[in-house]
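P.,

For your records, the input lines for the assembly:
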Amino acid sequence: MRIVITLQANSLARNTDSCKPINNKSIYCPQHAVGIRHVYIYPLNLFEYILMSKEVDRKRIHPSYQHETKSEENVAMQAKRLFKIYESAAGRVIALRDVSFKVNKGEFVAIVGPSGSGKSTLLNMIGALDRPTSGRVFIGGVDIFSLSDSEIATIRNRMIGFVFQSYNLINRTTVQRNVELPAIIKGMSRSNRIRRAKKLLEMLGIGDKANFKPSTLSGGQQQRLAIARALMNNPTIILADEPTGNLDTKTGKEVFNFLRILSQKYRRTIVMVTHNPELAEATDRAIYIKDGTVEKEVLNH
Amino acid sequence: MNIQEIFLLSFDALKDRKVRSILTILMVVVGSSLMVALNGLSAGFGKFIDESFSLLAPNILFVSSAQQDESASGPFGGGGGPPPTPKITLNAAVETRIRSLPFVSDIISSYQGQVQLESSGKTLSTSVFSIDPAKLNVIAPTIEYEEGSAIRSNDPSAIYIADQIAYPPGENAPFATLGQTMRATYSFVDENGNQQEESRSFVVKAIMKPTGNPTIDNAVVFNEDAGNALMHKSGKFDGFLVAAESGEFVNNVEEEIRKLYGNDIGITSPEAILETIRQFTGGFTVFILGIALVALLVGAVGIITTLYTSVMERTKEIGTMKAIGAQNSNVLSLFMAEALMIGILGATSGLLAGIAGGYVLTAGIGSAGGPDGGGGSNGPPNISPVFLPTDLATVWGISVGLSLIAGIYPAWKASRLSPIVALRRE
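Structure tokens returned:
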């Protein structure tokens, strides 16, 4: 299991007593415990290695951790027994019923289902936007719903890249600043941010549009811009919600191909929600959702 | 998110809704400029009053037959309602007693009334200040006369007229000139209830240059004998002007007179009049500033409306910001920054507009006092607004503070929005 945030081992040599395991894989350290800003979550094995000679309350570390490590080494995201129940005056609606699945690193997974199937609710959960009624979601080994709302926002900022159906760009500012936005929130330095945003725009073929307003771009270009923004903070997983839903078939295909390239060439982990079976079949694996449960999983070759 | 980025993003948002932002800023401008202008105006007015009264002799007390009560009336009786029957008659005996009091250097008895002047076919109604003309310089130390004037105490046919009466503002021909004869007519009701008139002829012996003392600057003066006869006063004075040995003894003199006559006699000093006027203008200022503050509050409500509307419009954008990792505090700061910028822009332009407005207002007041002769004798009163840096800073602070307070609710509302809205289909 990998280092979520690359850091120098010797920078951890401070007061680690206030660190606590948040699950069997990761450990949470308050900011003051380490000498680095914005570093909260470390993979446990790295930590253990560093703390080897120190007094650590090992009982607090899940015993099964050693066994799970190998098999889960390759998992980017995992949903465990997710339930989402809405209570309202009209009655009780079970939107998700015991949904579990894993997404491996570098895998391109489609979540497919008709509207009302619960796939949007599911996306809200794995995107750390909404808490499940019960169940857990792990992203990069972190049990995200064990964290506070503020920490979940940090997870969304650093570990998740969103691509929305209607792009959700901020039209009053430039293409360049739209891409920079997640890094601005993260607090990345200006020069790094500008350089990285430029590189991403180049990569997505809209490098010449940096100073334009997003509204002057075509739908396909806007969605590529949204993808660039999603990649800005180098997230563990990219969540795309009907990314081609607002595009014509040809442009939709183009955008989809970009996602494929990201997956195949750059080994990005992508979860795409769609109701288009044709697109679903072009991914590595399709998970079919119906009435709030996983109906079937299909591996595509 | 660093502060610079927050302000850049917020400024973009304000720019995006230019018209609405400008209108909101305008609301703040109206409130703060009104406050600045009115504050400056009343400060200027206060300064003007202080300056006018500094022209008056500080050692003079006005003594009248009016009874002293809690409502500080003017030196010669307050306005409104029938005056209470005086308990004291100000006659020569009273004059002698007051003259003998310690610290009193002089006492000037006076008759007052309203007469109709007739000169070269024109008539004019004016007030009369009937005293020994040689004592005018005690009341108004700065008094000067036009060249050719002659002051003689014992000339009952001499009349001394104020510059403003001789040369009515806005008219080309003088009303009267030195050496000319004019007729003064006094109307009164006798004990049988009949309307009576008494007339006398006078020769203009002096024209008094403006002194800054309104009692003299709008009046004619002739000696007591003439006043007593013309206005049928039968030796009952309307008031005394008691001169203390110097300004610092004014209170001692007042005490001495009080010992003699208690509250049956009215005593006023220029300082007391000044205090009354100050109280009045103070109250007026509070009232006016209250109105300006209401304007500012309306501006604050405008900010709430504007920001709240934009929170509602930008629900999806806020959701998106949160989906890509913005903290509640980031969103809160973004909207507070917008409120702050509206406040700073509004307060700053309001300050400038208010200073300009203060000058425009005083210019307006000045020109309004022109043709009808209501203003000072030398044209419009010279009031200019006074802007104290501390007052300006206070208004600025209040405006910015109110804007920030107005921003709290919409900003808080925005920060509580759920990120799920970003995913909702439109």
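Two observations worth noting. The radius of gyration of chain A is 20 Å. The first helix of chain A runs from residue 44 to 51.

Regards
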